[in-house]
Amino acid sequence: MTHILLVEDNQSNADLMIRLLETEGYTVKHCTHGLEGVRSVQKDPPALILMDFNLPDVDGRTLILTLKRRAGAAKSIPIIAVTARTGIMEEVIAERFGCDAFVRKPFDPQEFIAVVQQFMKKPVPASGDSEASVGSS
Predict the structure, then answer these.
(1) How do residues 36-73 score in pLDDT, each as one tens digit?
(2) pLDDT digits (tens, 9 = 90+) for 79-127
(3) Degrees (nearest 5) of the Cα angle 5, 20, 35?
(4) Which domain CATH number covers 25?
(5) Among 108, 106, 113, 109, which residue's Cα sits nearest to residue 80?
């Protein structure tokens, strides 16, 4: 099943985003560090990446640039910046570094899901399943 990779070091923010996404039927893999996210993309490329800018080991903008410049599957994966850096200049920088969309924290949950759905269709549960299979790591 296709998944969303969430790279977010703040566990409260991650928990909220995971809960929102899983409620919509998406499968989410969570990494708290940027380099862990890169390894995850290399091992099991996601359909979408949600990237915080303020990570403990690497600046999220630099990580986006790295992923977008790499050859292979990672280069074409849409990336949504989800950050507390709210200035208009941050959005411009995010776009220049390769982000496909920008979400400012704190965000409205419905708007957050609407941005995700611009890049991913809402999953349809398998027949007979009462709930989509979801998980986080």
Answers:
(1) 999 999 899 999 999 999 999 999 888 888 888 775 66
(2) 999 999 888 898 998 899 889 999 999 999 999 999 999 999 878 776 5
(3) 20
(4) 3.40.50.2300
(5) 113
| H or E, element range at 50 | strand 48-51
Q: Does a structural domain hold residue 125?
A: no
**How far is 77 from 14, CA to CA, in rounded Å?**
20
**Per the structure, how many domains does the chain have?**
1
Task: Identify the H or E element spanning 97.
Answer: helix 88-97
16, part of any domain = yes
Question: What is the model's pTM?
Answer: 0.86
Identify the burial level of 16 via C-beta atoms within 10 angstroms of its C-beta, where 0-12 means exposed, 13-18 middle and 19 or more buried.
Answer: middle
